[in-house]
Amino acid sequence: MRLKTRIDAAFGAETLPLVGFLIFVIAVFSVATPLFLTSANLGSMAFQMPVLGLLTLAMMVPILSGGLNLAIIYTANLSGLALAAVLIQFGGPEAGVGAFMLGALAAIAVGAASGAVMGWVIAYIGAHPILVSLAMMIFLRGLGEFLTRGGDISGFPDFMNTIGHGLVLGIPVPLIVFCLLAFVWHLMLNRTRHGYSVYMLGSNIRASEYSGLHTKRTLTLIYTISGVICAIAGILMAARFNSVRVGHGEALLLVTVLACFLGGVDPFGGFGRVLPVVVALMILQILSSGLNLIGANQHLSTAVWGLFLIGVMAIRWAVAKWLTRRIGAT
Amino acid sequence: MPNLLDTHKIELRLAAVLIAIVVFLSLATDTFLTLGNITSLLNNNAVNLIWAVGLLVVLIAGGIDISFAVAASVVQYLAAQVFGWIGGGNWALGLLIAGSLGVLLGTLNAALIHGFKVVSIVITIATFNVFFGLLMFFTRGRNIYDLPDWWVDRIFIFEHQSAAGTWSELNLSVGVMIACVLVTGFLIKFTTLGRQLYAFGDNPEGARRAGVNIWTMQLVAYGWCGMMAGIGGLMQVNIAKEVIPNALYGRELEVLAAVVLGGARLGGGKGSVIGAILGVMFVAITQNGLNLLGISPFAFQMIIGATILVAISTSNISLDLRNWRVRP
Q: In Å, how far are A134, A208, B4, B191, B228 from B319, measured between CA atoms?
């Protein structure tokens, strides 16, 4: 019980039930198909999850602050475009590591800029985050289509393959990037002044403003950081697919919101931890890969993801009801 | 009306901007203010408007529905099956079946939201995934061309041949749209149910204590949105002449942006049919104008996105930070 209390305190009360479910899903698929617990399948899952994972981290902090960032996919796409543009300037496939670094910086600058504009409008104009990020989404998609004419840009240097497909000590590079950033996110939310402000803002923006928090600056920063992590996701996508196209990963937008809610992030903001969200992401990935192995297609797993979220909501509701009844009885 | 300025500030401002755009386009192009252009504008946006008034009711009731566009696709597919079984059908039956199927899907949303006490955005994102995943799974992503004749035949409710010999016409979807807009306007403006929807959206707990039945409110809001989704889906097939399972994917966010632009408040209690129409027409006329001005189609979305961003930034939509949250 002591251990449970400590885990609950450090990572959030959602963690243990979700880990239990994770083990359950792994057990079911291991029994259902011998292909599941193979290194090939585990490897492919480890390569697939990080892009969704990074985008989910980008979605998570705005939700924690009581908003939403619907522009994440196109921010990632546009950042990828910035990277591609710089690489092509330096000779496409012949571009060196220096050019890549410059491109990555440009990508991050684009991500940060689009995030900062959104954050600024949300904070200083007071418009609703859904509307602002929706408008930004339409704008970025249009800008991307205008720049690329709907086509894709490919022809990147070979070393970018290492980022998208390489292994370090047997661990996929994208997974390392994701784990590192998830850990940074955990620290940022639990150990820094900014993280504390995010939770306060999400709980009650009025109260935090009267308590002396610079809410407007915090909001701008939240969306800027969200934009930066979108840019990193965009770089990773460019490396994985060896091409950039506006619309890549479009279908992931609402999946990231789903993953956040599954991981126990409060839709009103204020509550939610990183680790349960990561566990939720693993469950989603396993559901999709496992169903794929037993012969279902991607669309069926989309449906199962939705049903799974409804199921989790039903269980949470039942548990809450049971708890109030028990308290009422004593 | 002395207080129209207070109660419909956003609508009035949007109307002023829209009139400015219309005047500008009428002067800048000689094609904008022609009967042909206006009728095609109406034809092209009838379905969006049907969905917009449906979504408006949910927004007024303080919720949000992400699933309605995909639900419309589900209705199209199911309706095609039903028409196959009963061997044909007609418009009256079609509207009835599509409307009922839509209400059914909306009721599912309402039941989950009310039953499990979960905010609407969570449930409708879940049902969005369920609807779309199952639809693509069962259709295998294939289009349906084999549809009853009455469904895909053009029906004109207005025709006019100009002196130069070009035809301009309004098709049936515009008629259905006008009916949907009028009935929705009547529901939210002139019925007790409508007043209760506003009260519930503005303050659910207050409304509950005043004796409003919460379950009825959820049922009416999501059922209405579902019904409009179904009817809109039916009309969209009449225009497209085929059922494409993923054609409407993504339309929900565009309609949402237009309706919120028109003054419906995310958080509930505010919004009007006029505003929803203005919001949809603002986006439509901007796009139409860009087209007539000869600007590259690739730039349309970019300019529209930027216009909405500027519109939000200049009109202080919900300056009040308290009205920030999307309530269930």
A: 18, 17, 19, 30, 31
